[in-house]
């Protein structure tokens, strides 16, 4: 039986059992329903959870691990001479066997393969039966266990709360474990990379050309992995983006929270937030097809040499993308400055702009700094706009009119196309990813710290 | 609905109408008023919060506003320095004058007005700045001090008047928010006085304070009455009796009765005032 049908049956059993448990406890309580420790629905929920959770978990784990376990067992049925093959030939044989199982056969299959294939099929069917049987027994035990414990004074509510709490904890642990998993995998690949390329060359080298030639005699046969041009590129574009986003975002936040009346606010705020919903690839072609040519033309008429892919175009558009981020967060921060402080300033005869500059902004500053830092880590991680508008040339320059490249763009470039997963070229992507991760992590931690410190002031 | 209940309702309604008077009981006028209010109505959107209040506020007097919550005491108080301007939906009609000049006249600028009519709020609201900067804030924005020495003098003088100088003179650079609640409220009073106002409005200035701090603030109000006109909203009738010489009783947006504090508390004329004073509703 397939996993889905097993789960449906379990669900049915759980529902039936729960309805039974509920009517059972109501019958036991008789006229004393109000004297029961927990509501009848808590008994229902208790029975449901006790029945469904263990059996469903077992069924799911069983079918997830089925394939691996059976494959290991099947190898045991191979003839001795095949089992004795060296590792690389063995993996080839396994692939062939897999193909055979999937019905892809070239020519006449070996007799041993047919035999093992039959063994495999019977193992799978046994395993399915086993899964069905075990989970059904567990579900039955669950119903039995719950119903035998239930009585009017049974603390079903507390049990249900505990089970739900446990479930929620498991969910959050999954999220945390995923994060840890990502960090660890990136870390290990990076360590492999740093075995071949020294970490100092990577962090402080000024030349980036990660192509390693296929043949020894090809030009530029050895790659070089100095990431400084990428860091400066990222820095340059982020700086341009922030110098667009901070003033515009902050000013709109001030307008929205201090000047706009209710009506204007209810129109403008959602409009501004639409900006945040535009896919970055759309920003990307806005940058590449509208802003960049505009800059190039106007630059030419000013006598400036603006390349068609420039840090400036990418930075400006990225800044526009980040505006709603800053304006929305700053608006929240400014709104949470207590009204009593505004009253105090207005009551002394301060004008609106004096109140904003001298009272509201200083009080909101830590929160605004937090918002800006979060926005910076957003800018550093942004890829699409830069790929499309800033180019891929790793150039060490501070001139915003030239094309530059960023860490994220290089990661994309290293990983698209056919890759060997153990060349330094590919592993460099992980090293770049790790660097990025560390930088944004530090920024985020610092930003959260700043925001939290600010919260403490007024609560 | 039967006819009997309908007539009943009508009777009750007219009964209420008869209770809240169209005309304020008692003498609303004084000789040589500092502020005058004539037929002032205040609306929040469509909702009327103040209805036809006419009242004089004399120079060098302490007048207290009392009444059940929601009757419009704060709303009327905030009209006196146009603090209601900061609320979008609030609309004021009628005339309020300071020294004979209509403060709602379009040619009047609220900045100097609020320097002349200062305000102290219910919850102490010092800026998250140093004690010194809290006091110096008003004089700085109004350009009242010619130099640092001048400013130092204003700060010292205001803190002294507020009875806070001895307590804070050694820690002027520390944040005002670090003071105790009572000290913070006296800091706010000192901050209001630093711009030399003529009138000080206080909206339940002691409601967030403990009894000892309250006593200190009341004592301070007592001393300040020599130099300032003080309008105080209070929930405590004892406080009104202790600090004010005139008392105004508000009910449902109307000014029901005004009179000498002693008379209001010992011999109120209007039925509603009597009910409130004797604690029949609050
Ligand atoms: N900002 C506001 N917006 C709308 N209605 C308000 C506002 N402030 C006060 N009100 C209303 O005006 C009436 C008077 O309020 P208020 O002056 O605060 O009363 P009091 O100070 O006497 O308790 C109340 O009904 C209140 O709901
Ligand atoms: Mg009030």
Strand order of the largest sheet of chain B: 6-7-8-3-9-10
The count of DSSP E runs of length 2 or more, i.e. the number of strands of chain B, is 10
The CATH homologous superfamily of the largest domain in chain A corresponds to MetI-like
What is the distance, rounded to the nearest whole angstrom, between the alpha carbons of the first and last residues of chain A?
A: 57 Å
How much of the sequence of chain A is in beta strands? under 5%
Q: Which cofactor or ligand species appear? A: adenosine-5'-diphosphate, magnesium ion
Report how far apart the termini of chain B are: 33 Å
CATH architecture of the largest domain in chain A: Orthogonal Bundle
Q: What is the H-and-E element order of chain A?
A: HHHHHHHEEHHHHHHHHH
Biggest interface, chains and residues, is:
A-B, 21 and 27 residues
Kindly state the mean pLDDT of chain A as a whole number? Answer: 87
Taken from the alpha-carbon principal axes, the silhouette of chain A is flat
Summarize the helix and strand pattern of chain B as letters. HEEEHEEHEHHHHEHEHEEHH
Helix content of chain B: 25-40%
Written account of the structure:
Chain A has 459 residues and is mainly α. Chain A has two domains: 3-154, no CATH class; 224-458, MetI-like (MetI-like fold, Orthogonal Bundle), CATH 1.10.3720.10. Helices cover 77% and strands 1% of the residues of chain A. Chain A is built from 16 helices and two strands. Chain A has helices at residues 3-29, 40-76, 80-83, 87-101, 111-149, 156-196, 199-204, 228-259, 262-277, 280-301, 311-335, 339-347, 352-381, 384-389, 407-415, 424-458, and strands at residues 208-209, 224-225. The mean pLDDT of chain A is 87. Chain B is α/β, with parallel strands linked by helices and 282 residues long. In chain B, 38% of the residues lie in helices and 24% in strands. Chain B has eleven helices and ten strands. Chain B has helices spanning 3-19, 73-79, 110-116, 131-141, 148-161, 165-168, 181-193, 211-224, 237-243, 261-266, 271-277; strands spanning 33-44, 47-58, 62-66, 90-98, 101-102, 117-120, 199-203, 229-233, 246-251, 254-260. Chain B has a six-stranded mixed β-sheet, sandwiched between helices. A four-stranded antiparallel β-sheet of chain B has the order 2-1-4-5, covered by helices on one side. In chain B, helix 4 crosses helix 5 and helix 7 runs parallel beside helix 8. Chain B starts with a helix and ends in a 5-residue tail after the last helix. At the A-B interface, helix 12 and helix 13 of A face helix 3, helix 4 and helix 7 of B. Residues 73-74 of chain B line the site of magnesium ion.
């Amino acid at each position: 039986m397939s996993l889905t049908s097993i789960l449906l049956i379990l669900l049915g059993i759980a529902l039936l059992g729960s309805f039974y448990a509920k009517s059972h406890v109501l019958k036991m309580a008789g006229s004393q329903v109000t004297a029961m420790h927990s509501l009848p629905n808590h008994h229902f929920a208790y029975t449901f959870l006790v029945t469904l959770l263990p059996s469903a978990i077992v069924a799911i784990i069983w079918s997830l691990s089925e394939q691996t376990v059976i494959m290991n067992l099947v190898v045991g049925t191979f003839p001795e001479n095949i089992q004795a093959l060296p590792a690389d030939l063995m993996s080839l044989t396994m692939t062939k066997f897999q193909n055979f199982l999937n019905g892809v056969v070239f020519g006449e299959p070996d007799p041993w393969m047919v035999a093992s294939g039959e063994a495999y099929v019977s193992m799978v069917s046994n395993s399915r039966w086993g899964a069905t049987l075990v989970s059904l027994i567990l579900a039955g035990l669950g119903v039995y266990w719950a119903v035998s414990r239930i009585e009017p004074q049974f603390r079903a509510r507390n049990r249900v709360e505990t089970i739900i709490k446990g479930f929620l904890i498991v969910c959050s642990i999954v999220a945390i474990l995923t994060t840890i998993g990502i960090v660890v995998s990136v870390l290990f690949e990076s360590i492999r990379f740093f075995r071949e390329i020294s970490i100092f060359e990577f962090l402080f080298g000024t030349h980036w050309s990660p192509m390693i030639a296929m043949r020894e005699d090809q030009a530029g046969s050895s790659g070089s992995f100095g990431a400084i041009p990428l860091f400066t590129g990222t820095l340059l574009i982020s700086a341009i983006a922030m110098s667009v986003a901070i003033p515009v975002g902050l000013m709109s936040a001030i307008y929205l929270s201090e000047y706009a009346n209710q009506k204007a606010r209810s129109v403008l705020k959602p409009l501004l937030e639409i900006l945040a919903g535009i896919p970055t690839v759309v920003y990307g072609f806005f940058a590449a097809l509208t802003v960049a040519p505009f800059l190039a033309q106007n630059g030419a008429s000013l006598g400036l040499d603006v390349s068609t892919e420039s840090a400036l175009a990418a930075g400006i558009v990225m800044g526009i993308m980040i505006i709603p981020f800053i304006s929305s967060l700053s608006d929240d921060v400014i709104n949470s400055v207590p009204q009593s402080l505004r009253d105090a300033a207005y009551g002394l005869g301060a004008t609106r702009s004096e109140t904003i500059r001298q009272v509201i902004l200083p009080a909101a500053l830590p929160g605004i700094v937090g918002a800006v830092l979060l926005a910076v880590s957003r800018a550093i991680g942004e890829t699409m706009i830069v790929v499309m508008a800033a180019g891929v040339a790793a150039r060490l320059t501070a001139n915003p009119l030239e094309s530059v490249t960023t860490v994220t763009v290089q990661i994309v470039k290293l990983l698209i196309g056919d890759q060997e997963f153990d060349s330094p070229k590919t592993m460099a992507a992980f090293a770049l990813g790790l660097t990025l991760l560390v930088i944004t992590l530090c920024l985020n931690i610092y930003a959260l710290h700043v925001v939290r410190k600010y919260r403490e002031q007024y609560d | 609905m039967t006819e009997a209940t309908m007539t009943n309702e009508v009777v009750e309604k007219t009964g209420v109408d008869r209770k809240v008077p169209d005309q304020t009981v008692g003498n609303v006028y004084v000789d040589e008023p500092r502020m005058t209010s004539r037929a002032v109505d205040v609306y929040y959107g469509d909702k009327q919060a103040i209805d036809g209040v006419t009242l004089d506020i004399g120079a060098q007097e302490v007048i207290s506003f009392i009444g059940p919550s929601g009757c419009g005491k704060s709303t009327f108080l905030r009209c006196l320095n146009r603090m209601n301007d900061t609320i979008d939906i609030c609309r004021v009609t009628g005339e309020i004058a300071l020294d004979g000049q209509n403060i709602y006249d379009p040619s009047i600028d609220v900045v100097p007005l609020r320097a002349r009519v200062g305000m102290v709020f219910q919850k102490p609201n010092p800026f998250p700045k140093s004690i010194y900067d809290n006091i110096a804030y008003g004089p700085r924005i109004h350009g009242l001090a010619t130099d640092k020495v001048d400013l130092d003098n204003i700060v010292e003088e205001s803190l002294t008047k507020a009875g806070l100088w001895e307590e804070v003179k050694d820690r002027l650079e520390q944040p005002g928010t670090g003071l105790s609640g009572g000290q913070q409220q006296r800091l706010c009073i000192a901050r209001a006085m630093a711009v030399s106002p003529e009138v000080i409005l206080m909206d339940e200035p002691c409601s967030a304070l403990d009894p000892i701090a309250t006593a200190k603030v009341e004592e301070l109000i007592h001393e300040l009455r020599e130099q300032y006109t003080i309008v105080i909203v209070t929930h405590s009738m004892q406080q009104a009796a202790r600090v004010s010489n005139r008392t105004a009783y508000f009910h449902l947006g109307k000014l029901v009765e005004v009179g000498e504090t002693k008379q209001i508390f010992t011999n109120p004329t209007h039925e509603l005032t009597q009910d409130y004073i004797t604690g029949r509703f609050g």
